[in-house]
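task queued by scheduler; priority normal; single chain, no ligands, no partner chains; default sampling; output format set to structure tokens
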Amino acid sequence: MKDFDHLMSVWQGQPKQEKLSVDEVLKQVKKGIRGLTSRIYWSIVAMAVIIAFAFIIMLFGAFSSWVTTVGILIVLVTMLMYLTLIVRHYHILSKRDATLNPSEYLDSLKEYQKNRTKVIGWFYYIYTLLISAGLALYFVEVLQNASGVFKGVTYASIIIWFLFTTFYLKPRMFKNEEEKLNLMIDRLVRLQDQFD
């Protein structure tokens, strides 16, 4: 019973959450969304440039093996799928204004976060696996006359890249974005609770 009384006194002693300023919260949310959309926008630009470069290589490269063309095609299709996904995310984040209807905006952010987590989770693995497979097929012909050591280093680099991006980079990258989204959603929820 003593522990319960102590726990109750600690709980009651917690400071009350301060009232949030509507203008300040909306300004912070807009700034956070602007940061996310800016990063997504530059990802779209970079991906479009890489796709154009890969397409030029596929069209004008004089490859004798069909395996090389298939490798480039796999990379191109994978990058086009990713580009479609990030363009969709960009439109979802940038199409609404938090100041017009904060509760509707909050609902759309929650839906975006739920869908993003579900889609990005499985898509990222497929994306890195297909890019790695496409590069491996591309290097079959490109490295045809290379030494065995150089081929081994190249293919080992592809495997290391796949493992690094899958198990090190992806969790950190998505955790960072998830924390930012959670912070924005939390601020909007607290603001909504003030008026309920």
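post-processing summary
- Helices lie at 2-12, 22-60, 66-94, 102-142, 148-195.
- The chain has one domain: 20-195.
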